[in-house]
Design brief:
The complex is a heterodimer.
Chain A: E1 8-9, E2 12-13, H1 14-24, E3 29-35, H2 37-51, E4 56-62, H3 67-74, E5 83-87, E6 91-93, H4 97-107, E7 111-117, H5 120-124, H6 127-135, E8 142-146, E9 153-158, E10 166-169, H7 170-176, E11 178-182, E12 185-194, H8 195-204, H9 211-221, E13 247-249, E14 280-284, E15 291-293, H10 297-308, E16 325-326, E17 331-332, E18 337-338, E19 343-344, E20 349-350, E21 355-357, E22 360-361, E23 366-367, E24 372-374, E25 377-378, E26 383-384, E27 389-391, E28 394-395, E29 400-401, E30 406-408, E31 411-412, E32 417-418, E33 423-425, E34 428-429
Parallel strand pairs in A: 3-4, 7-14, 16-19, 17-20, 18-21, 19-22, 20-23, 21-24, 22-25, 23-26, 24-27, 25-28, 26-29, 27-30, 28-31, 29-32, 30-33, 31-34
Antiparallel strand pairs in A: 1-2, 3-13, 5-12, 5-13, 6-15, 7-12, 8-9, 8-11
Chain B: H1 2-17, H2 21-26, E1 30-34, H3 45-48, E2 55-56, E3 59-60, H4 61-71, E4 76-81, H5 85-94, E5 104-109, H6 116-126, E6 133-137, E7 140-142, H7 147-159, E8 163-171, E9 189-192, E10 199-203, E11 212-215, H8 217-222, E12 225-229, E13 232-240, H9 243-250, H10 257-267, E14 274-280, E15 285-287, H11 291-302, E16 322-326, E17 329-333, E18 338-339, E19 344-345, E20 350-351, E21 356-357, E22 362-364, E23 367-368, E24 373-374, E25 379-381, E26 384-385, E27 390-391, E28 396-398, E29 401-402, E30 407-408, E31 413-414, E32 419-420, E33 425-426, E34 431-432, E35 437-439, H12 451-482, H13 488-491, E36 498-500, H14 506-513, H15 520-546, H16 550-586, H17 590-604, H18 608-625, H19 631-650, H20 656-671, H21 681-690, H22 696-707, H23 715-719, H24 721-734
Helix pairs in contact in B: 6-9, 16-17, 16-18, 18-19, 18-20, 19-21, 20-22, 22-24
C-alpha cells in the first residue's frame, strides 16, 4: 500500500537516503522512474514537497513488470549526458556515488558497478529473529571475479548461476593472468553506465529485462570482444537513478576528461589493441561503509535498526546522550524507559511502565501502559493497547493493537486491528485476511 | 607397511608433543631425486643416455639438482634410477657426490618402473623416508632457499595434519598466443586461496577446446575468496610429508605426479588432504621438460640467473671457466681454447676445454662442449653443441642441439629445431630439414599415442637400447661402408643415421617444444586462431544472452548437463562396442562378455536398457562392417550375428521397455549412422522376432507409440506395417 521507496526508515522514506547521498555528491539532475502510475503520483508528491528547491527531479512512470532494463529503455530519450548513474531507490548506503562515478570516468569504462561486502553482521545481530540467521551461512548474492588490482570486473554470476559450478572463461584469464574470485561480495545495484553504450545494448537486446542479471553480465562477458561502438562524444554527464521505483538523475557537471583511458592502456583490455574491448570497472566500498538494500522485510528491520544504531550518521538526527532520539513533542508516561538505539517520533505518546528497546516508533502513535517494544518498527499513527508485547515485528501505519496483544516476528498491515489478547508468532496480518 | 605407518604416526605425535621447533628442524631433511622423467620428450637422445646426464652448459643436469639440494640443506638424497640406471650410477660413483661431507647420496635402482608413481611406491616399500622430504626430478635447476618453504610446510603440518604437500610455484605468464609458458610447457590454470595459499584447482594439459574453467560450487561455498592464476609456473619442486608415499601406495593407480596425484588429492574430499603452494619471487627454479626449456634454462644459466650455479663459479662437477667481458654481456672461455684470430665469438656463449675454432667462424648465443673441432667459415647461432663434435668448414647451425661425437661434413646445414643424437654423421652439403631428429638408432616402430604408454616406452627403451647398443657400435663401421640405400639419400654422402619421422599429431606440436624460437608465421597463425576462438566464445555466449533472461539461461545449462550425460553415454557405447568387438575377435565366452558389460554398466551408471541398446548397436555395427555385397548378404550377416550373440542381448532384455529401446535404437541407426539397414528394417525386425529377442508386445507397443509421431518418424512403422499387421492378427487369433 505504500510504495517501497516511501517505506519509513527511521521515520524518513528510504528514498530520501539515496537522494541525500546524491545531493552530497553534487548530482542534482535526476529522473525518478516509478513503476505504476499510482505509485508515481505518491513518490512524485513526496519528492516535490521535500526537495522542491534542492534537486531538479523529474518523475517518470513506466508500466509495471518491465524490469530495470525495460524501465531504462522507456526513459532512454530523457537521457542526454555521456555517463549515467543508475541507483536502486531502496539502497541505504553512505558510499558516495561521486566515488563510483569518479572511478567510472577515470577508466573511461563502459560500466562501473559498486560492490560491497555482504552484510553478514547485520543479519546475525538481528536479535531474536536473527538467531535463525546465525545458524545459516552468510548469504551469497554474487560471485565476482576481479583483476588483482581490484579495478576491473572480469566475471559476475548472479541469481540461478550461483547454484551451479562456476565456469570461468579461459580467454579472459589468459589476458589478465590472475583473477580474484570472491563470493563474499555483492552487487549493490549502483551502476555508472556509458550512456550511448547502455542505449545501444538496450536497443539491440530487447529481451534484456534486468540490469543486474542481463545487462551487466552481458557487458562483462563481452568485454574482450566488444560488439558495441564506443562513440560517446562527451556532452556533459548525466546520472540517473533506478530501483524498483527506478529513479534517474541527470546532471550537467564539469566537462569530462576523455583522455584518461590512455593511462590505462596497459590494463587487461588494452593489451590487445587490435581487438575491440571495453572496460568494466568496479568500485569496492570499504568495509567500514554501510551499504544495504531494502529488499526484504528482514532487511527493512535490519536497516531500521542499523540506521538508528551503528550507522546512525546516516539518519541525519542528533542523538541524545542515551544514544536515542526522542522527539521533544513525544510524551512519556512515568517509569517508561526508552533504551539506546531507539527512536520515538513527533507527537507520540506512551503510557506508564513501558519499555522500548532497539525500536523505531513513528509519529503520533498512542501507546498504552505496560507495553514492551523490542527490535520492532512501529510506523505512524499506530495505537497500541495496554500490556502489549511486541518483538521483532513491523506495525504499519494506522494499525491498532488492542490490549494484551503479543506479537513476535509478525507484520501487521496498514489499518489492521489486532483484537485483544491475541498472540501471534511469525505471521503477517493484513486487512484482506479478515 | 603397518609398522612404518605406526612409526610415522608415532613420530608425528612426538613432533606435536615436543613444542620445540628446533627439534623438528634437527631431523635431517631427505630428498628423493627421480633420475628419470618417465617421458619421451628428449628422444632420440634419451635412448642412449639418461636425461639427467645430458650436459646443460657443459655440466650434466643432475649436478645442478644435487648441488642445489646440498646447498638447500638436504642431508640425504635418494637418487631413483630407472632408464639407463647403470649409466647414472656409474656417473655418480665416479663423481664427487658420494664423498661429500654432510651430504649422502644413495641410489635406488629399478628396471620395471614405468612412472613416478611406481617409483614412489617402491621407495615406500624400502622404508627409507622418515620425515618430510623434497621430491624433485633430476632435471631441475634452482637456487631458491628452502628454509622458508620448509618452515611454512612444517607449521601448516603442525596445525593441520592433512597438509601433506607444498608445491613451489613461480610467476611466469604464458604467452596468450601460443598458450605455453616461456619454458615450453603448457599453460597452467590454478586456483589458490589467497590467504592460506592452499591449492584448490590444478589444470595442466589444458583442453583447448574447452573455453571455460569449471569451479565446483562447493569450492566457492567453502572459500569466499579464490585467486585464479594463469600466470604461475609449476617448478616441480615439492616438499612432501611422509604420508605422500603411503598415499601413492594406497592409490595404486596414481602414476603421474601432477595429473594423478595432485588432481586426485584435490578431488578427493573424503580424506581431506590438502596441498599448499609457496611462491618464490627472486630466486630461480625451472625444470627442463623439453627442448625449449633446455634452451631457455641454458640461456638463464649463461646469463647468471641461477647464481651460484653458473659456468664461472665452481660447483661440484664443473670446472670454473673464465669470463670475458664483452660489452655488457659475458662470454665464458676456457683457457685451453685454440681460437683462430679471425673467429668471432659473440656474447652469451660458453666454450669448453680443448675446443678449436677455425678462422672466420661466427659463434653467438651458443654453448660448445669440450674437445670440439670447428672448421672455418662456420656459422653457429643459438645452438648447443656437446663434446667432441667435429664441424667441418662452411657448416651452418641455427638453433640446434648436437650431441657427442657428431660429425658434420663440410657445407652441411642444420635448419632450426634439428636434434642430432650421438655419433650421427651428416653428409657433405646436406641440409637437414627443420625440426628433424636424427639418430643412429631406428625409431621405435611401436608408437602408441596412449598416454599411459608414454612412460612405458622409456623404460622399454632401456632394454631395447642395451640390446642394440652393441650391434650399433659394431655395425657402425659396416653401416658406413655399406652405405645402405636407405641411409644414403637421407643424410647425404657419407651420412650415418636415421631421420626419425615425426609421429602423427606430433607434427604441429614440434615447434612448441623445439630449441628454435617460434617462427613468425606460426605466431600470426595462432593469434588469428585465437581471434576466431574469442569470436566463438562470445558468439555462443551472446546467442545465449540474446535469447534472453534467466529461463533461457537455465535452459542452456540444462543443455550443458544433457551434453555431459550424452558424452557419458557415448563413451559407454564406445566401450561396449570395443568390448564386443574384442569378444568377437578373441572368441570370448558369452558369459564373460556379459560380465564385462555389466561392469561397464556399473561404472557408467547406466540402465540395462542402455546396455541392451549399446550391445545391439555394436552387433549391428559389426554386421555392417562385415564385408557384404548386397542387401540380402547384409541381412544374412546380421542374422548370423544375432544368432551367435542372442544370449548376450537377451541377458539385458528383462522387460518390455528394453526391447522397445532396441527398436528405437535400431530406428535411430537406420536414420543416422547405418543407413544401409534402412531398407532392411522390417526384415531384421522379423529376424529379431523370430529369435525371440523381441516379443510381439514390444513391437506392437512401439508401433502404438509411433502412432502419434510426425510423418518423418513413421517411415519405419510404415515399412513394417505388414509385419505389424500380421502380429496383430496373430495375437487376435490366439485370443
Amino acid at each position: 500500500e505504500v510504495p517501497k521507496a516511501l517505506l519509513p526508515v527511521a521515520n524518513r522514506p528510504v528514498l530520501s537516503y539515496v537522494l541525500e547521498q546524491l545531493e552530497l555528491s553534487n548530482i542534482k539532475d535526476l529522473i525518478v522512474v516509478v513503476e505504476g502510475a499510482d505509485a508515481a503520483l505518491r513518490v512524485g508528491g513526496w519528492i516535490s514537497a521535500a526537495y522542491v528547491d534542492r534537486l531538479h527531479v523529474e518523475v517518470a512512470t513506466v508500466p509495471e513488470d518491465v524490469g530495470t532494463a525495460g524501465a531504462l529503455r522507456a526513459i532512454a530519450h530523457h537521457l542526454t549526458a555521456k555517463d549515467v548513474l543508475v541507483v536502486s531507490g531502496d539502497l541505504v548506503s553512505d558510499v558516495p556515488p561521486g566515488a563510483v562515478t569518479a572511478a567510472h570516468r577515470r577508466h573511461d569504462a563502459v560500466v562501473t558497478a559498486m560492490i560491497c561486502s555482504v552484510p553478514v553482521s547485520g543479519l546475525s545481530e538481528a536479535g531474536s529473529s536473527g538467531a535463525k540467521d546465525k545458524t545459516k551461512k552468510p548469504g551469497r548474492y554474487n560471485i565476482i571475479g576481479m583483476d588483482p588490482t581490484k579495478q576491473f570486473l572480469l566475471h559476475i554470476a548472479t541469481g540461478a548461476e550461483l547454484e551451479k559450478d562456476t565456469r570461468i572463461r579461459k580467454s579472459i584469464l589468459r589476458a589478465v593472468g590472475q583473477m580474484d574470485i570472491r563470493a563474499d561480495l555483492m552487487d549493490a545495484h549502483m551502476y555508472a553506465f556509458n550512456r550511448s553504450v547502455l542505449q545501444e545494448v538496450l536497443d539491440q537486446k530487447d529481451k534484456f529485462q534486468s540490469l543486474k542479471q542481463d545487462v551487466l553480465p552481458y557487458l562483462v562477458r563481452s568485454q574482450l570482444k566488444s560488439e558495441i561502438l564506443i562513440n560517446g562524444a562527451p556532452q556533459g554527464q548525466q546520472a540517473k537513478e533506478n530501483g524498483n521505483d527506478k529513479v534517474s538523475y541527470r546532471i550537467l557537471a564539469n566537462a569530462s576528461t576523455p583522455s584518461f583511458h590512455e593511462l590505462y592502456a596497459l590494463g587487461p583490455n588494452g593489451s590487445a589493441p587490435v581487438r575491440r574491448t571495453h572496460k568494466c570497472c568496479v568500485y569496492i566500498a570499504s568495509n567500514s561503509k554501510y551499504c544495504v538494500r531494502l529488499n526484504s522485510i528482514q532487511a527493512f528491520m535490519d536497516i531500521n535498526r542499523d540506521v538508528i544504531g551503528e550507522a546512525n550518521h546516516l539518519s541525519g538526527y542528533n542523538f541524545s546522550a542515551q544514544n536515542n532520539i526522542i522527539h521533544p513533542s513525544a510524551e512519556l508516561g512515568s517509569k517508561t524507559t526508552v533504551g539506546p538505539h531507539c527512536m520515538l517520533g513527533e507527537g507520540s505518546q506512551m503510557g506508564d511502565k513501558c519499555s522500548v528497546k532497539r525500536s523505531v516508533i513513528g509519529r503520533h502513535c498512542r501507546i498504552g501502559s505496560n507495553v514492551k517494544v523490542v527490535n520492532s518498527v512501529v510506523m505512524n499513527h499506530v495505537t497500541i493497547g495496554d500490556g502489549c508485547s511486541i518483538q521483532g515485528s513491523v506495525i504499519c501505519s494506522n494499525a491498532q493493537l488492542q490490549e494484551r496483544v503479543a506479537l513476535k516476528d509478525c507484520q501487521v498491515g496498514q489499518g489492521y486491528v489486532v483484537s485483544a489478547g491475541c498472540e501471534y508468532k511469525g505471521e503477517s496480518l493484513a486487512r484482506k485476511e479478515k | 607397511m603397518g609398522a612404518q605407518k605406526k612409526r610415522a604416526a608415532a613420530a608425528a605425535a612426538a613432533a606435536r608433543v615436543s613444542e620445540d621447533p628446533d627439534d623438528l628442524a634437527r631431523q635431517p631433511l631427505q630428498a628423493i631425486l627421480l633420475a628419470d622423467s618417465f617421458t619421451t620428450k628428449f628422444r632420440p637422445i634419451t635412448l642412449e643416455r639418461p636425461k639427467v646426464l645430458l650436459p646443460l652448459v657443459n655440466v650434466p643436469m643432475i649436478n645442478y639438482t644435487l648441488a642445489w639440494l646440498e646447498a638447500a640443506g638436504v642431508a640425504e638424497v635418494f637418487v631413483f634410477c630407472c632408464a639407463h640406471s647403470k649409466q647414472v650410477i656409474d656417473y655418480l660413483e665416479n663423481s664427487e657426490w658420494f664423498s661429500q661431507p654432510n651430504f649422502t647420496v644413495k641410489t635406488i635402482e629399478s628396471h620395471n618402473i614405468i612412472s613416478a608413481g611406481d617409483a614412489l611406491r617402491l621407495i615406500y616399500e624400502q622404508n627409507v623416508i622418515h620425515g618430510d622430504f623434497v621430491l624433485i626430478s633430476g632435471d631441475t635447476v634452482s637456487n631458491m632457499s628452502l628454509t622458508q618453504a620448509l618452515q611454512e610446510h612444517k607449521e601448516r603440518k603442525k596445525k593441520d595434519n592433512n597438509a601433506v604437500m607444498t608445491m613451489i610455484i613461480k610467476k611466469s605468464k604464458p604467452s596468450p598466443i601460443t598458450r605455453q609458458s616461456r619454458l615450453g610447457t603448457d599453460e597452467l590454470f590454478m586456483a589458490i586461496d589467497p590467504n592460506t595459499k592452499q591449492l584448490l584447482y590444478y589444470e595442466d594439459k589444458a583442453d583447448h577446446s574447452k573455453g571455460t574453467i569449471c569451479l565446483d560450487k562447493m569450492l566457492l561455498a567453502e572459500n569466499p575468496s579464490i585467486s585464479l592464476h594463469n600466470d604461475k609456473q609449476d617448478c616441480y619442486i615439492d616438499i612432501c610429508s611422509p604420508e605422500v608415499l603411503s598415499l601413492f601406495t594406497d592409490n595404486f593407480d596414481y602414476q603421474h605426479l601432477r595429473r594423478h596425484f595432485v588432481k586426485g588429492l584435490l578431488l578427493d574430499d573424503i580424506m581431506g588432504y590438502k596441498i599448499f603452494t609457496h611462491e618464490i619471487h627472486s630466486s630461480y627454479a625451472a625444470r627442463i621438460d623439453n627442448y625449449r626449456s633446455y634452451d631457455i634454462v641454458s640461456k638463464d644459466i649463461i646469463q647468471r640467473w641461477t647464481y651460484p650455479y653458473v659456468p664461472d663459479v665452481k660447483f661440484c662437477g664443473n670446472r670454473a671457466t673464465k669470463l670475458e667481458r664483452r660489452g655488457i654481456c659475458f662470454t665464458a672461455f676456457n683457457s685451453e681454447i685454440e681460437q683462430s684470430r679471425s673467429a668471432q665469438v659473440g656474447s652469451f656463449t660458453v666454450i669448453g676445454y680443448g675446443t678449436k675454432i677455425g678462422s672466420n667462424s661466427k659463434i653467438s648465443d651458443s654453448v660448445i662442449g669440450e674437445g670440439c673441432t670447428i672448421g672455418s667459415n662456420v656459422l653457429i647461432e643459438g645452438s648447443y653443441i656437446w663434446d667432441n663434435v667435429i664441424i667441418e668448414d662452411g657448416c651452418e647451425l641455427r638453433h640446434v642441439i648436437v650431441c657427442d661425437g657428431v660429425i658434420m661434413k663440410a657445407g652441411a646445414v642444420l635448419k632450426p629445431g634439428v636434434v642430432l643424437s650421438f655419433k650421427v654423421v651428416i653428409g657433405e652439403r646436406f641440409v637437414v630439414p627443420a625440426y628433424s631428429k636424427v639418430s643412429l638408432l631406428q625409431q621405435p616402430t611401436v608408437h602408441d599415442s596412449d598416454e599411459e604408454l608414454e612412460y612405458a616406452d622409456n623404460s622399454s627403451g632401456t632394454v631395447e637400447f642395451s640390446s642394440i647398443q652393441g650391434t650399433a657400435d659394431q655395425s657402425n663401421g659396416e653401416m658406413t661402408s655399406e652405405s645402405s640405400e636407405a641411409h644414403k639419400p637421407k643424410l647425404g654422402t657419407g651420412g650415418v643415421g636415421y631421420i626419425w619421422s615425426i609421429c602423427e599429431g606430433g607434427q604441429e606440436e614440434e615447434w612448441r617444444h623445439s630449441v628454435a624460437p617460434i617462427p613468425e608465421d606460426k605466431l600470426t597463425e595462432l593469434s588469428e586462431a585465437m581471434d576466431d576462438d574469442q569470436e566463438l566464445v562470445t558468439q555462443d555466449r551472446t546467442a545465449l544472452s540474446t535469447s534472453g533472461e534467466l529461463i533461457s539461461d537455465s535452459n542452456a545449462s540444462e543443455g550443458d548437463d544433457n551434453e555431459d550425460s550424452k558424452d557419458d553415454s557415448v563413451y559407454f557405447e564406445k566401450e561396449v562396442e570395443a568390448t564386443f568387438l574384442r569378444a568377437v575377435e578373441e572368441n570370448v565366452k558369452v558369459d564373460h562378455v556379459i560380465l564385462e558389460v555389466n561392469s561397464l554398466r556399473l561404472s557408467y551408471n547406466m540402465t540395462s536398457a542402455d546396455c541392451a541398446g549399446a550391445v545391439f548397436y555394436s552387433m549391428m555395427k559389426l554386421a555392417i562392417k562385415t564385408p557384404h555385397s548386397s542387401a540380402s548378404e547384409l541381412q544374412q550377416n546380421t542374422a548370423n550375428i544375432i544368432t551367435t550373440w542372442q544370449k548376450l542381448l537377451k541377458s539385458y532384455l528383462l522387460e518390455i521397455d528394453e526391447e522397445i529401446e532396441i527398436i528405437l535404437k535400431f530406428e535411430e541407426m537406420c536414420l543416422e549412422s547405418a543407413k544401409e539397414f534402412s531398407p532392411l528394417f522390417a526384415r531384421i525386425l522379423h529376424i529379431l522376432y523370430d529369435k525371440d529377442i523381441l516379443q510381439e508386445d514390444a513391437i506392437l507397443r512401439w508401433a502404438d507409440e509411433k502412432e502419434g509421431a510426425d510423418e518423418s518418424d513413421k517411415v519405419f512403422v510404415r515399412q513394417s506395417e505388414k509385419f505389424i499387421q500380421w502380429l496383430r492378427e496373430a495375437s487376435e487369433e490366439e485370443d
